[in-house]
From TrEMBL:
SUPFAM superfamilies: Homeodomain-like, Regulatory protein AraC. Pfam families: AraC_binding, HTH_18. This is AraC family transcriptional regulator. InterPro entries: AraC-bd, Homeodomain-like_sf, HTH-like, HTH_AraC, HTH_AraC-typ_CS, RmlC-like_jellyroll. Residues 181-278 form the HTH araC/xylS-type domain. The lineage of its organism: Bacteria, Bacillati, Bacillota, Bacilli, Bacillales. PANTHER family: ARAC-FAMILY TRANSCRIPTIONAL REGULATOR (PTHR43280), HTH-TYPE TRANSCRIPTIONAL REGULATOR EXSA (PTHR43280:SF2). It comes from the Bacteria. It comes from Gracilibacillus xinjiangensis. Keywords: DNA-binding, Transcription, Transcription regulation.
Length: 278
């Protein structure tokens, strides 16, 4: 299992909130030096923009996107007669971890060819948003989610790596998911068993109390919540396949009996497994 799989496994716990979305035109004399408290995504509609991060210089042109992570210090300058771009400030979290994207090298200039269809959908939603059309804010959030998912997909496939330099504080966060990778693998390999947090802590070489804190810091949810989510995802898929009885599924997911499994399933999906999908 790769680290990016957590966004699919825990998709119900992903939170994306748009704080602002608008467009701006700057003349050729424009320059700003900033760092933002949230994520900032620019779509360049016209012109060229030079971005300086520490001592490195990058150039973004019409059709490109620029993704800034929170607290990234940069200087932006117009490199043409003027520049025109749409900017979107947003928060992105998984569980209680609102810096989860910082574990991946995403900040940088994204060429339009990588996300062409997703940009088209986003721009259509933005036009509706400007006109204050019904449900336009909801649609804009959905299209931004699709766009971020596509960027993550390209990152996972090795087609994209953000070029902006990571600062030391963000490198500290990277350790969490890297050190938890063996735990993710262990859970997936033993999902058919009853998994106990103490057992996982032993695999990680940590005390149980420290492991729970460490896991939640890295993933935004407790180990128990993560295991429960995976079991419910797997139960849903097995029920949809219509190939197994409830007794068999309970056994396959490490539940001692069908009653315990059905109780856990109903708590999550609000219906018993025997009625799921009807």
């Amino acid at each position: 299992m790769d680290s990016l799989s957590i966004f699919n496994e825990l998709s119900e716990l992903v939170m994306l909130r748009i704080n602002s979305c608008s467009e701006i035109v700057h003349p050729n004399s424009w320059m700003e030096s900033k760092q933002h408290k949230d994520y900032d995504l620019w779509y360049i509609q016209a012109g060229q923009i030079e971005i300086r991060v520490q001592e490195e210089v990058y150039l973004a042109s019409e059709g490109d996107m620029i993704l800034f992570r929170p607290k990234l210090a940069y200087t932006a300058t117009t490199r043409s007669n003027e520049c025109h771009f749409i900017f979107t400030h947003f928060d992105f979290g998984l569980g209680n971890h609102f810096g989860i994207l910082d574990n991946f090298q995403l900040s940088g200039i994204i060429e339009r060819t990588l996300v062409e269809e997703e940009i088209r959908l986003f721009l259509e939603a933005y036009d509706q948003y400007k006109q204050i059309a019904p449900m336009s804010g909801f649609r804009l959030k959905g299209c931004l989610t699709i766009l971020i998912a596509k960027i993550l997909e390209h990152y996972g496939q090795g087609h994209y790596r953000g070029e902006f330099i990571n600062n030391p504080s963000n490198r500290i966060q990277n350790i969490d998911l890297e050190k938890l990778q063996p735990i993710f693998d262990f859970i997936h390999e033993h999902l058919h068993q009853t998994l106990r947090v103490g057992e996982l802590a032993e695999v990680a070489g940590m005390s149980e109390k420290y492991f729970i804190t460490y896991f939640k810091k890295g993933l935004g949810v407790t180990p128990g919540r993560y295991i429960y989510q995976l079991k419910m995802n797997r139960a849903r898929d097995l029920l949809y396949s219509k190939q197994f009885s409830i007794q068999q599924i309970a056994n396959m997911l490490g539940y001692p009996d069908p009653y315990t499994f059905s109780k856990a399933f109903k708590k999550y999906y609000k219906v018993p497994p025997s009625k799921f999908g009807w």
